[in-house]
Model the fold of this input.
Amino acid sequence: MRPYLGLFRHDVLLAFRQGGEIGLALGFFVLAVMLFPLGVGPEAETLRQIGAGIIWVAALLAAVLSLDRLFAADYADGGLDLLALSAMPLEGAVVAKCAAHWVTTGLPLAIISPFLALLLDLDARSMAVLALGLLLGTPALSLLGAIAAALTLGARRPGVLSSLIVLPLYLPVLIFGAGAVEAGIAGGGARPHLLLLGALSLAALPLAPLATAAALRQALD
Amino acid sequence: MTELAVGDSDLIAEGLACRRGERLVFAGLGFVLPPGGALVLTGANGSGKSSLLRLLATLLAPAAGQLVWHGAPVVYDPGRYRASLDYVGHFDAIKPALAVRETLAFWAGLRGIAAPRLDAALAAFGLDTIADWPCRWLSAGQRRRLALARLIAAPAAIWLLDEPTAALDADGEQRLLTVIEAHRAAGGRVAIATHQALGLSGPHRLALEDFAAPPHAGEMSGGF
Done:
């Protein structure tokens, strides 16, 4: 367990030390959501209808923006070689890195989402569903994003390329995430949507690291 | 160099070949590295020294041939082999935001070592006075020393060093030599790619040119 915890701690520590890392994703998230009332207009009814969708789309984009943090630095400074030679399988290292990525990206997004929901006039119940949905769905964003981040190592514009790869993979998360809030507003139960979100994250947990580790081995070659 | 008797605890390379893209860099390369042995890789730029070291570190897969460690091919149990090697490549794997000691502790921890010898490692390369500096303050030579200090912090039986003296000053080179000789005296093995005469005692030299593939040998027929 020691190497896994060490890697997790190291990545979280780096994200905090390089202060911009967490702030960047959060700042983007807040700004992107705030643009919509300005663009769409201040009618509370309209905003309430599209609010959940806006917040989820902004969360997806913020997650995509932060993906290059996962492996790019290790790839550039030779750390990836040492990860491949560490006492844990590369798949395990990917899980530890994704966990650190989630704690410094998905978790903060979920925590501040109720405040943004306030801005879009969502009611208290919707806020709770939204935050819970983000909490359950964002691990899948980190895990699936790792595949794209690993595949694009060494590419010339990795950020653009990885968003092209990963955004289609994010569609199910977006659909069930926004769907949960809308179902709650429409009077239906949000529970099935939330369960499916959790299922997506759980399915990604063993599968995505396999693909990511394979892509990383390719990058080492 | 006299013919070496092959023992059970040797690192043996048999008929290794390395392909980079379409080009066959070297082929038919073999050696025996006994306990206490030092393998010095020489050759012009591009002759495959770094590729051979990455191949020995299992970071590259050989196009042909195999490595044998403790009497069994490495591919049977790569994890056990990886646990017994330390690799210091061209890049130093140093994050500017971490302190010197933190960096060392992190990489030693990844090797699964419960009590890494951090103080000994820092002292061996003269880093003890700057152990708390953030790595962004380090010069190129100090970064190199920190990368080399991993060898002491997380000891392993096989050291693979790629141009370890790059950016090192005379004092650094001397410290490296001391550390390598102590490692060999304790039965460790080392493979070094270097252009410098390090002054190792009784090294086994391997000139990559001797194994260079004939031109066009490795290229696909047809195609273009």
